[in-house]
C-alpha cells in the first residue's frame, strides 16, 4: 500500500515545497523592500536636515566600493562553506563540528575585516577617538577611576569620556586595560581579542540549540552561523566580545535547565550574566531570551539559586569599588540626549533599525523567521516548538531595545548579542546551499560596497 501512495505523495510534497519557497521569497522581498524604503527615506531626511547623522542610512557607513587583501580569502571561505558546509555539519562528530564552526567563523570574519586592509579594517578600528583604547591610560588607579567614573560621563564635564567609554559600564574599558597590562596593548591585539572571542558566540548558540531543541536543528543551522553577514561588524568591534559573553551566559543557562551539571553551569551562567550587564547596559535584555530558555527546561527551577549567586559576584565587586550601575545609567541617558542620540528622530529609527537588520541577519534568516512563524509554538514539547520560542524570544528582545529609544542607529553593531539568536531559524529551511550562497552574497556586497563605521 505504501508503494501505491508514493506517486501521489511525492508530487504533493513537491507542491508543498514550492509553495513554502514562494512564501519564503515573498518574505525576503518584503524585507528587501523595507530596507530600500528606509534607505530612500533616510537619504531624503539626511540631505534635508542632517538629523540622522549617518552617511548611508539606515547603516552607519559610507558608499565606498573597494577590494582588499581579504577579498580572495572571503570568496574562498564562502565557496567552501556553501559547497561543503551542509555535508560537514551533518557528518562531523559533534565536538569537532563545534571547533570547525569556530575555525571557519574566524576565517570568515578575519577575511571580511581584511577587505578594508590591516590598518583600517583591523588595527585602527578600535583605536579611533570614540573607542575604549583612548581611555586606557586613565585607569592607572582602577578603584579611584571607578569611584569617579560617573562624574565624567556627561559632555561638558572635565575630561569627559569618549563616546563608547561613556556609553558602557566600566567592564568594557577594563577589558582593554587588562589586555594592555598583560603586554597586549594597542588596536591590533584588541582586534585579535574581539574576533577570537567573538566568533565563539556561534559555538555557544549551537550548544544552546542542541540542549533545548535537538542536535539535528543545531547541525542544520551550523553553516549559517559560520556565514553570518553580521561578521562584517563582528570584525572588528568590541560588541563581538559582548556578544560572546552574552551567548555563553545563555548557553550555560540552557545546559543548567536541561540537567547538565546544574550547579556548575548555573554558576557559570550567573557569572557571565553579571559580567554582561557590566559590559553593556543593553544586555539587561538578555533576561528576555533567558526567559525563553527557562520555559522548556526540564530542571528550570533547580539551577536558579546558583545562577543568582553567580550573578551577584560582578555587581558586588564593582559596587564595593565605588561604581554604581543605576546611577551611571541615569546619567548616561542624559549624555545620550546631549549628543546625536538627542537629534536622531525616533519616528524614523524605530522602523529603520529593523530594516537595517536585513543586512545583519541576511535573507536566509528572514526566510527562516517566516517559517518560524508557522511552527506550532504552543507545542513546546516538540523540538521545532522549542527552537521557535528561542528565536522569537530574541526577536522580542530586539523589539524592546528598539522601542526603548536608546538604540537609534548603529544597531547593526549594537544588537549583535541579540541578532545572533535569530540565525538558528535557518534550521527550518530547505534548499540550504542556495540560501547559504545568498547569505554570503549579502556579506560580500556590504563589505565591498560600503565602508562601515566604528
Task: Provide a short characterization of the protein structure.
With 454 residues, this protein is mainly α.
Number of helices: 21
Structural class: mainly alpha
Major pleated sheet: 2 strands, antiparallel
Low-pLDDT stretches are 1-8
Shape estimate? globular
Strand order of the largest sheet: 1-2
What multimeric state do the chains show?
single chain
Strand content of the residues, in percent?
under 5%
Which percent bin holds the helix content? 55-70%
The overall pLDDT average reads 94
Q: State the separation between the terminal residues, measured CA to CA.
A: 63 Å
How does this model look, in words?
It is a single chain. The termini are far apart. The chain has 454 residues and is an all-alpha fold. The N terminus is likely disordered. The chain is built from 21 helices and two strands. A two-stranded antiparallel sheet has the order 1-2.
Question: How are the SSEs placed, and which strands pair?
Answer:
Layout: H1 2-49, E1 61-63, H2 71-91, H3 94-114, H4 118-123, H5 142-148, H6 163-166, H7 171-181, H8 187-198, H9 201-212, H10 215-226, H11 231-234, H12 238-257, H13 262-279, H14 286-295, H15 304-320, H16 325-338, H17 346-372, H18 383-403, H19 411-414, H20 416-419, H21 432-449, E2 450-452
Antiparallel strand pairs: 1-2
